[in-house]
Specification:
Conserved hypothetical protein from pyrococcus furiosus pfu- 392566-001, domain 2, 12-stranded mixed β-sheet, 14 helices
């Protein structure tokens, strides 16, 4: 049984793409999601919004996901895709990120062909499984990674040398392009090459877990719609940790010096693996742990931060601690620093793990600590659509 399979679906029409395509639900703040629901009745966010968000948006939001999906499909926003695959490219910050969209059977996530690296929240898995039962549509793509393959690269390059079926977005900021692939020989090459080795889940662990749960509970065999990128095809980005204040900076620095070499910095520097940075009391410091780096999950910088620094010194062992704010590394440093100055807290910055760390953890059967890293950029929801049972 092959890991990947072609699919028959729908592709957003060129003249509707800007209106329909939406950032992934979890890539937007609550405020941004509600604002979109109020301003754009054709955004795919109308399909993925939660009951809380619909209530906050009021009568300007669709009443439920199924109604929103029917409205969108009935508005002629999509055209049918012939059975095959899709090549999806996001160009952002001058770099092109290109993946192949295919169906992946849930069995592949359980038998070792596709390996994950993150733990999941059971409540969120349950909610996603219930949502999938109510709305038999798939459009938020799970991101997978594959080992770099020259023959595969050449095949994808040949596809992307042709005119895309859909292209939208601002070329100076973020541009998305989609190619439909229905040539049987090209489809077979892509399916074989992508399935030749192990794949790794980059983003979408909860959606995968929800599909596996539905299979266990119903006996159905749902598939997971995935975009498969090369191992260096997405950017790994870290989360910073902001500790709200006020803190006793002198005591904290003294405690940090007991377990780290502490060196003053003239400002935030590019993050390096194995070395952390902290902004505290108006100054930046570099922290290099004295203990040897351990193997596996325990040796990740984010694990060291919690188990050797935040936990023992401040009693903050988990990202769920109310004193801790998890900040995407791409957030503007000056804004986060200003919030630290305002309450007398601290900001800890660290480097993201690399893809070899993820592969190592997945093959060890270990998982990343919560909020360790994220992949960027994310594909948009509502561009490629599969209607199960249609």
């Amino acid at each position: 049984m092959r890991t990947l399979a072609p699919f028959a679906g729908w592709l957003v029409r060129q003249d509707r793409a800007e209106q329909v395509a939406s950032p992934m639900h979890d890539a937007l703040s609550l405020e941004d999601r509600v604002a979109t629901l109020r301003s754009n009745p054709f955004s795919f966010l109308q399909v993925t919004a939660s009951p809380q968000e619909r209530a906050m948006a009021g009568s300007l939001a669709e009443p439920d996901p199924a109604t929103a999906l029917a409205h969108l499909v009935g508005s002629d926003a999509y055209r049918p895709l012939p059975p095959g695959l899709v090549v999806y490219r996001v160009t952002e910050g001058g770099r092109a990120h290109t993946g192949v969209v295919a169906d992946v059977a849930t069995a592949a996530f359980g038998d070792g062909r596709v390996l994950g690296h993150e733990a999941v929240n059971p409540a969120r898995v349950e909610a996603l499984a219930a949502y999938a039962d109510a709305v038999p549509a798939r459009s938020e793509l799970v991101a997978l990674l594959h080992r770099r393959d020259a023959a595969l690269d050449a095949t994808v390059a040949a596809v992307t040398a042709t005119q895309p079926a859909v292209a939208f977005g601002d070329p100076a900021l973020r541009r998305e392009q989609v190619w439909a692939v229905d040539d049987p020989a090209v489809v077979d090459t892509l399916v074989q090459r992508l399935g030749a080795g192990p794949l790794y889940v980059a983003d979408g662990h909860h959606r995968v877990a929800a599909a596996m749960r539905r299979e266990q509970e119903t006996g159905a065999h749902p598939r997971v719609l995935c975009a498969v990128f090369a191992e260096d095809g997405l950017d790994l980005v870290a989360f910073s940790r902001r500790v709200t204040g006020p803190l006793d900076a002198t005591t904290l620095l003294a405690g940090l010096a007991q377990v780290c070499q502490v060196r003053p910095l003239d400002g935030p520097h590019p993050a390096r693996r194995g070395v952390l940075q902290v902004y505290l009391a108006g100054a930046w410091w570099e922290l290099e742990p004295r203990a040897p780096r351990r193997a596996g999950s325990a040796g990740l910088d984010v694990s060291v931060l919690h188990t050797e620094l935040l936990g023992p010194l401040l009693g903050i062992w988990s990202v769920e601690d109310p004193r801790l704010v998890v900040v995407p590394q791409r957030a503007a440093d000056h804004q986060v620093v200003a919030s630290v100055d305002a309450d007398g807290g601290a900001l800890f910055r660290l480097a993201a793990p690399d893809v070899t760390d993820l592969a190592d953890l997945a093959e060890r059967g270990e998982v990343m600590p919560a909020k360790a890293t994220y992949f960027a950029p994310k594909t948009s929801a509502g561009v490629v659509l599969v209607l199960d049972g249609a």
